[in-house]
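Hi, here's the filled form for the chain we discussed.

Project: internal
Contact: R.S.
Residues: 218
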Amino acid sequence: MDQIYEVLKDRILLGKIAPGERIVEHMIAKDFKTSRTPIRGALQRLMQDGLVERVLQGGLRVTVITPQMVREVFGIRAALEVYAGELACDNMDAATLLELKNMSRSARRLLSGHDTNSADSLMTLWQINTSFHETICRAAGSDFLLKVINQMNDLIGRFRFLSLKKNRRRAWDDHESMIRYLESKDKAKLIDLMKAHIELAASDALKALENDQWEKEV
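And the returned structure, exactly as it came back:
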């Protein structure tokens, strides 16, 4: 069931199963060559993540994305992550800084590669991006804050993926500046940058949604 869940989740994030698309259990079971029982378990987890929803007529579909959803999720993300960054500035250590720098180097290698626009590269870059922000949140040292952020991780990740396809290099320029501000413990500049970074990501996600480019760019 775990493998089925991960594959379906990746397909939703990549837009291979588009927002609003119906989920047909027996077709998925046929695709994975398995019974419906593990499929139902995987779909239940995706519903808990907010990636799949029930429809009034019966059955399931990939959660429909609206501009209001994007604005709300990015607004909540900004409040949580900016606060996490503020706390992380006080708690940052050398090992965590090295971890962030290694992520940045990995991302730059991907961005300079010949297949940077492939689905695999986009997914790997999204995973590094997500790990980068999660590492800063963990460095905040607040278990309660981390729990709240984790509850929204999949929705935040879904919209992060949409925005990341628009300006990947600029995003990593911002990330490298964040590392410098964390290293120098420049809290004011870090907070300003994180707010601007998330606001621009929200704008990119809304533009992609308006242009119906969720699934077309992969």
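Let me know if anything looks off before we file it.
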